[in-house]
Amino acid sequence: MAANDRAGAPGKSGGSAGSDGLMRASLSAVAPGTSMRDGLERVLRGNTGGLIVLGSDKTVETMSTGGFVLDVEFTATRLRELCKLDGGIVVSSDLSKILRAGVQFVPDATIPTEETGTRHRTADRISKQVGFPVVSVSQSMRLIALYVDGQRRVLEDSAAILSRANQALATLERYKLRLDEVAGTLSALEIEDLVTVRDVSAVAQRLEMVRRIATEIAEYVVELGTDGRLLALQLDELIAGVEPERELVVRDYVPEPTAKRSRTVDEALAELDALSHAELLELPTVARALGYTGSPEALDSAVSPRGFRLLAKVPRLPGAIIDRLVEHFGGLQKLLAASVDDLQTVDGVGEARARSVREGLSRLAESSILERYV
User: Fold this and answer.
1) What is the reported pTM?
2) What is the tally of structural domains in the chain?
3) What are 53's strand-pairing partners?
């Protein structure tokens, strides 16, 4: 199989998250550069149709009638020739073998579907009934459609996907620049102990926006297969460190649990993830997701970081040591005021590491203030 097939062969879905994962795996399996995509395009260019089930089990065998058993190695040319026959094709889950051809599929007719053509209705019902992805090549409409557990995705030409992906990438670049600005401002405010809930919410908002745009572009990368390699490199460079930064901001500022409210870091991250695009634009809503009240007055309330975020910027400082430092000192201001001797009282922090932390925090403080005021 082609190099892109190593991304993962499609299997069966298992719930909503499973369906999304199966769709990504299925898109990767039929992306440009794979043998399957080569075969599907040959079928399309040959002006014939096709119905291919990407997987086999007892349920698939039960609904399959007629045709003949092959169990031969999968190749694009074989797929093209076998699609000239009436009936569908069954391939193995890892797409390495063509198991059957010329098959008439008889799925459960009671399964609801909004598709109209016979081939598309059958593909939709099979995917819902057996849980395996199904590909339908339409001779009349000149398109390739992928059906995964009730979802339908038309496989577009790489040029069209690249056009949308480049637009999204340009948007991501602008949002990343704005994120860098607000993150730099937050660092300076943390040094001066002038942070408000509004400042934290603004950074969390931008981090979430960047993450969502990056997720959209990542979907394009999957669809593009080998045609998306340069896009993938650009995406990786732009979003390097965004996901860790998102968690560090929440760890720094999620409110301490009280009798009235309690929110863990994981819960706050899940709340941010669950916000709609419209809700994400509202800072009070973002503040509530972080665990604050979200009122106009609360947005201007002062908050102090625990220090996870800035300590993570100190070179070669393990996460376990960061956790111990924060637990020992309780906040960034005490960390900034700590001497080398004070830092050495923390378990696992020797003299050399204590000096490294002291010098690292001092450099971060100086650079943050300079960037803010110069």
Assistant:
1) 0.83
2) 3
3) 90, 134
Secondary structure element (H or E) that encloses residue 270, with its range? helix 265-274
For 99-112, b/e burial (b = at least 16 CB within 10 A) is bbbebebebeeeee
How far, CA to CA in Å, does 32 sit from each of 2, 123, 159, 168, 226? 10, 22, 11, 20, 6
216: phi then psi, degrees, rounded to nearest 5: -65, -45
Residue 302 gets which letter from DSSP?
Answer: B
Looking at the structure, tell me whether residues 241 and 255 fall in a common domain.
yes
Residue 169's domain comprises: 157-305
If asked whether residues 258 and 202 sit together in one domain, one would say yes
DSSP string, 181-197: HHHHHHHHHHHHT--BH
Strands 88-91 and 50-54: parallel
What are the beta bridge partners of residue 104? 65
Q: Is residue 333 predicted with pLDDT exceeding 70?
A: yes
Element (H, E) at 256: none
Upper half-sphere CA count for residue 223 (Cβ side, 13 Å): 23
* Rounded alpha-carbon distances, angstroms, from residue 43 to 77, 130, 146, 224: 9, 24, 15, 19
Q: How confident is the model at residue 4, as a pLDDT?
A: 40
pLDDT digits (tens, 9 = 90+) for 1-20: 333 433 456 777 655 556 77
Query: Is 236's pLDDT higher than 90?
Result: yes
Continuous segment of H or E residues that includes residue 151: strand 151-155
Contacts of 120 by beta carbon, 8 Å cutoff, 6+ apart: 136, 138, 145
Strand partners, 91: 54, 98
